[in-house]
């Protein structure tokens, strides 16, 4: 899998990320479009994993603090799930974070995806909460 990244909202990489997010969050999970595309769009780095030149997985990173990255909008196209693409993407991001001396990665995981993140070494922090009507828990991984 090839992984590309951008901060440019006019980039084809961002557009590919947005397309996957729209398919997963808006169409599959019925998240309102105005919630899915938010005011942090221009403050994040977008990552897209490509298989045979087709975008299949995405996430964005918000640099909340100098030593902390916050993953958001992790999404895999329905036809590409359970093939390890999201794991590969997160591993690559974690490697980049280590190179930049980032100490912590956080994310707000949908409860239905919590076991996936636990297997990657993330730990649950705090109580359950609702985001866009979907149950979540904050998770953290120290690098």
UniProtKB/TrEMBL annotation:
Presence of keyword Calcium: no
Pfam families hit by this protein: Acetyltransf_10 (PF13673)
The keyword Cytoplasm is assigned to this record: no
GO molecular function: acyltransferase activity, transferring groups other than amino-acyl groups
Family matches, as InterPro entries: Acyl_CoA_acyltransferase, Bact_Acetyltransf, GNAT_dom
Leader peptide range in chain numbering: none
Keywords, in A-Z order: Acyltransferase, Transferase
N-acetyltransferase domain location: 4-143
Protein name, per record: Acetyltransferase
Organism, scientific name: Bombilactobacillus mellifer
């Amino acid at each position: 899998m090839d992984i590309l990244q951008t901060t440019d909202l006019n980039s084809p990489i961002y557009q590919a990320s947005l397309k996957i997010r729209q398919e997963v969050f808006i169409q599959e999970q019925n998240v309102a479009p105005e919630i899915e595309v938010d005011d942090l769009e221009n403050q994040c780095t977008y990552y897209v994993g490509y298989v045979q030149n087709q975008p299949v997985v995405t996430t964005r990173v918000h640099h909340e603090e100098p030593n902390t990255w916050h993953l958001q909008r992790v999404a895999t196209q329905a036809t590409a799930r359970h093939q390890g693409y999201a794991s590969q993407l997160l591993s690559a991001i974690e490697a980049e974070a280590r190179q930049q001396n980032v100490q912590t990665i956080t994310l707000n995981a949908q409860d239905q995806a919590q076991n996936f993140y636990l297997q990657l070494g993330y730990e649950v922090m705090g109580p359950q909460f609702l985001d866009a009507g979907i149950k979540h828990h904050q998770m953290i991984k120290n690098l």
